[in-house]
Design brief:
Elements: E1 3-14, E2 17-24, E3 27-35, H1 42-48, E4 58-63, E5 67-73, E6 77-78, H2 100-116, E7 119-120, E8 129-134, E9 141-146, E10 153-154, E11 160-162, H3 176-184, H4 187-190, E12 194-196, H5 197-212, H6 223-232, H7 246-254, H8 265-285
Antiparallel strand pairs: 1-2, 2-3, 3-5, 4-5, 6-8, 7-10, 8-9, 11-12
Length: about 290
């Protein structure tokens, strides 16, 4: 095997196996180890089609009699690690992230690229937003990247897809239409739980709000409350985001209850770029030295 795994250094564990530190061709990588009985080709097939600065890179896939090993770009931490208590051993303590605006634009750009390839991510949550730190140049560059493509799917001409009947994933990051089918669907509908790219958009809105709210979920403080509020359309923490904030309207449009009413990933990218242009013009015209920031 060309992939060398350090089984004493586990970075994380999830629905799709454990992640270890390791090397591939002398490069430090993250290695996802999955038991063959649980292995799916979804993640690998999706990442083979994707090449974008805000999506983790796939380097190599190998297997033995028991496991599949996937060598991926190594990142410092996931977004949720930012909000751990200072003394927590997994707390992110690396270089400061870009502004919220830049993080939002990077995430939206990465997701728009995924959607342009006729794919959905299918499992958007803070744990699947990774922080990459590049210190090879004079200036340290911090970037956020999408990971966790185990539930990724190809969409049809209507931009719809079928989920696994097992409903893997973290339910309090699901869109209401998926929750309804998972929680209240019949045995027949459980075999054909469908979503659209707009299901991704709801989850993206949750991640945006999570960052704006310093690690709090916009629909509540525990899983049962959050699920009930998502189904009931009660954004209980929305009042903690200033209505004048540029992202308030974006989050509102992503969290529409009906999928067809939600803004698209392309629209989010266009809106953020337009906001950047507006701020640049304001700063250019400002004569008293004050500068607007994002």
């Amino acid at each position: 095997m060309e992939i060398e795994l350090d089984n004493q250094l586990r970075l994380g564990r999830g629905d799709f196996g454990s992640v270890f530190s390791g090397t591939f061709q002398g490069r430090k990588v993250a290695i996802r180890r999955i038991e063959l009985i649980d292995a799916s080709d979804n993640e690998v097939e999706a990442l083979k089609q994707l090449d974008h600065p805000n999506i983790i890179k796939l380097f190599r896939v190998e297997r033995n009699n028991d496991f599949k090993f996937i060598a991926l770009e190594l990142c410092e931490a996931s977004l949720d690690k930012i909000f751990l208590l200072p003394n927590h051993p997994k707390k992110y303590k690396g270089p400061k992230l870009p502004s919220h605006f830049e993080v939002f634009l990077q995430l939206a750009s990465g997701l728009e690229y995924i959607h342009s390839k006729k794919l959905i991510h299918g499992d958007i949550k803070p744990e699947h937003v990774l922080i990459s730190v590049d210190s090879t140049s004079q200036d340290i560059k911090v970037t956020v990247k999408w990971a966790g493509f185990g539930l990724s799917r190809t969409v049809d001409e209507r931009e719809m897809y079928t989920m696994d009947s097992g409903g893997k994933g973290t339910r309090h990051w699901y869109a209401p239409e998926l929750l309804l089918k998972l929680l209240f669907g019949s045995s027949d509908t459980m075999q054909q739980i469908t979503g659209t790219v707009k299901s991704d958009m709801f989850a993206l809105g949750l991640v945006f709000a999570y960052l704006l709210l310093d690690g709090k979920h916009i629909y509540g403080s525990n899983e049962i409350e959050i699920i009930n509020n998502i189904l009931g359309g009660k954004k209980v923490n929305m009042n903690k985001i200033e209505q004048s904030h540029y992202a308030y309207g974006l989050v509102t449009e992503m969290l529409k209850n009906k999928p067809e009413d939600r803004i698209s990933s392309l629209n989010i990218v266009e809106r953020l770029k337009a906001i950047r242009v507006e701020v640049t013009i304001l700063n250019y015209r400002k004569r008293n030295g004050n500068v607007y920031t994002l």
